[in-house]
Amino acid sequence: MNKPGPVVILLLLVLAGWQSASHPDLVDRFYQQRENRPFWFTPDDHAADGRARLLRFIDSAAWLGLDSNAYHPDSLRQLEAATHASTDPRTLINADRAYTTTALALAADCWRGHPESAFRYDGVSPVFSHREDSFLLAGLNSASPDAIDTWLNTLNPATTRFNALKKALAQSIDSGHKRQSTRISATLNMFRFVHHFAFDRFIIVNIPSAMLYYYSADTLTLQMRVVAGQPSKRTPRFAAWCNGLTLYPYWNVPRRIAINEFLPLLKRSPQYADMTDFELLDEKGRLVDPTRVDWKNVRPAGFPYTIRQVPGCENALGVLKFQLTDPFDVYMHDTNFKRAFGAANRYLSHGCIRLEQAARLGDLLLDHSLDTAFLAACLKDQKPRSIPLARPVPVFVVYLTAIPDSTGTLKIYKDIYHLFD
């Protein structure tokens, strides 16, 4: 059999190294720190053992909720054969880089999952990207090739629930339940993502369970029922920051709702706005009397008004709104429709997240300085008041249909948005 030529080897390197596309300088930094010394192809036996250990770890990646094929084990094995007994320095250097690229991609996924497929918007990760890359580089640099699997295993969360998920995944794979395995894998990767930041406090909203979880010092401090978006008006999945609260907020009706839902009502009855505590504002922010508008000539395409609901307990946002940095015009907020929290099917909103215990969560975020009595009084004629948080709190709105409870028992929730179909 002819030995593969340089073109074949280059192709194998490209196949093995595609993962570096999102961080093209990461491998370069690794070798700069090592003064271009090889890691995987050295004369001692540790290097060959390390390459074999990395391949075995990749082969078993499915049991960790990862896709083995994403790390191209077949290409690496072909590369291994192509470089066997090679003395060409350039070939060995490129092969070394291919293994490093794959190891760093695998390490990143073991540590922080792969949130790019789980969120429509991630405003949290970019803040920490340089720190995280440095952590991974330092970890690989300090590892020995023949202990690469030990290092990779240390990157997974060491929590009871994560271990319970791994056990459930193994059982699901062994039983041939592919769909359930996919759901459990999604949860494993989200657990990785949320926990690898090591935040001292954070919020998780899980859409399929319609629940919110607030963690402080890695302890579940508060959980509550929420109302999420209807299947036709889905709550988006995102990672963002809560940077403040608004007491007695206006509800500024999103334009799509104003046009699709309010405009037909106002055309039929201009008095509808006053009856439901809504105000009409022109393009300069001036109040307009709805009864003086010629609604017959107002068209959706050129709708010239803003609609807002005045503050108070009858406001759709209730008396408390949590300011989020997501780009979807979606909030967490109180509500004037409390009965919905008693329903089994809590998918009723236009996409926002209504909270069962908004004041209690707000008090925790403000370190118990929120005037909850002021909110409970439902005072009339209040003006919105914004209170910034001393430190923004990360909020992860996720879609997990398989979650272990506090005892480690796996709970399966309905795929309400059909994301796993």
Please outline what is shown here.
The protein is an alpha+beta fold and 421 residues long. It has 3 domains: 6-156, no CATH class; 201-248 and 316-412, L,D-transpeptidase catalytic domain-like; 251-309. 38% of the residues lie in helices and 19% in strands.
Write the layout of secondary structure elements.
Layout: H1 6-16, H2 26-33, H3 45-59, H4 73-83, H5 89-112, E1 121-122, H6 125-142, H7 148-154, H8 160-175, H9 178-196, E2 201-206, E3 211-216, E4 219-229, E5 238-247, E6 251-252, H10 255-268, H11 272-275, E7 278-281, E8 287-288, E9 306-309, E10 320-324, E11 332-333, E12 347-349, E13 353-355, H12 358-365, H13 372-376, E14 385-398, E15 402-404, E16 410-412
Parallel strand pairs: 1-5, 2-14, 4-12, 11-13
Antiparallel strand pairs: 2-3, 3-4, 4-13, 5-10, 5-14, 6-9, 7-8, 7-9, 10-11, 15-16
Helix pairs in contact: 1-4, 1-5, 2-6, 4-5, 5-9, 8-9
